Here is the input.
Amino acid sequence: MKMIRWSYDRRKVVRAYFDKYPDSTFYFRKIRSFYFLYSSEWSREDPVVTDGDQDTMQLLVNAALGRKHAYRNRKSRQRKESSY
Here is the structure.
């Protein structure tokens, strides 16, 4: 999956578009020092968003905004890895 484009929407919110979901708009909100998928304007013509796609989208947005390191080191990821 590739990110087609992104733009700032309003305070602490980024709007992004992806090639796998060409008719949908995804909104990412900043929490602490990284962005996470907050909501979307999903189109019925696009496939259903999976958890794996959601993680990929979050990684692509954070990488584009220079926040990849903060996203990879978030607390929820550390809890997930320690529970396995």
Q: What stands out?
A: The longest helix spans residues 51-64.
